[in-house]
Amino acid sequence: MKTPAVVATGERVARWRDRRLKDPRHSERVAALLGIALGVSFALCFATGLLSHLIQHPPSWFVWRPRPAGLYRLTQGVHVATGLAAVPLLFAKLWSVFPRLFQWPPAHDLLHALERLSLLPLVGGSIFLLVTGIANIELWYPWVFFFPSGHYAVSWVVMGALIVHVGAKASITSRALRRPTEPAPEVAQSRRRFLGLVAVSSAAIVTATIGQTVAPLRRLALLAPRHPDIGVQGFPVNKTAREAGVVESSADVSYALAVSSRGATVRTFSRAELTSMPQRSATLPIACVEGWSASRRWTGVSLRTVLEHAGLHDAQEVEVVSLQRGGRYRKSIVNRRQLLDLDTLLALEVDGETLAPDHGYPVRLIGPDRPGVLQTKWVGTLVVR
Fold first, then answer.
1. Burial of 94 (0-12, 13-18, 19+ CB in 10 A)
2. Distance separating alpha carbons of residues 337 and 53, to the nearest angstrom
3. Contact assessment for residue 73 and residue 293, using Cβ atoms and an 8 Å cutoff
4. Model-level pTM?
């Protein structure tokens, strides 16, 4: 039996909720419009993030092509931009529907109860994705789990919950978007101001960061953590040679690139021998998962040419191994299609200068349409399969 105090509290909450719901900013139409914008943003972010995951951790059925050379910088730029745009959209959406969470009873039936329960993984997972994604852009990892794995797993949970939510709200959204009557001018104006503020906020955040990918907007990239034209030799460095522990092991006097096949070393090449081979130049982007990218002119030896000098003409894939001491990305795979592209280089120079140690001296891998984490620096061994 409810006590008078409980009944009085419930009545006050109901009055507060009803009063808030009369505000046009909390209307079903506003919630529907924000939901559509947020759903589109999440769908694009999920699709491009899924593609990035497949490229970095390819299953047997997935083969990423090397052309067009700048496709990954575009898809990853879209991934980061839509994720950032979703931040004000998400909080505006939560604010617009917040009073509806205080309805009583909490659910009308079992299906309604399941729909409301799906909000827990949807909202919690969305906040997790946005917070960890922004932290990753800043290269800040205050957690113990591996970011790509955690981010990827939670994205599936969020998309599953989003599908359930969209299905449950489809009829309400459809009804809210129909306009049987024109609202009062003050109601329409209040609604437009709120939606306009949210749209401007999303656009401003994207504009202030997308310059790290889109060159014409670089002067506006005030919030971008890294500027594509600032850093050693004119572009950013995510991991220095000292951090990777390769300052001494990459010295010219001791360096030798080993090429192995079937468990045995077939041949080694000094840096001088690589320099004496036919050199090839190509303008290719460094496109990092954090969203920044920079095109540079790379010069070196085609990976295919090096293998031919080693007598290996029918390689199906090559595992490129760095000199760095450990790390999840000290190895990367070059598939057959990428290997056949002559612009997949073992680079020795960038923009006419010898590679700096922080950019992979004495030799780094650079290939068209590869994520930055797979453009292996300080190459020490090629394992041919």
1. middle
2. 19
3. yes
4. 0.91
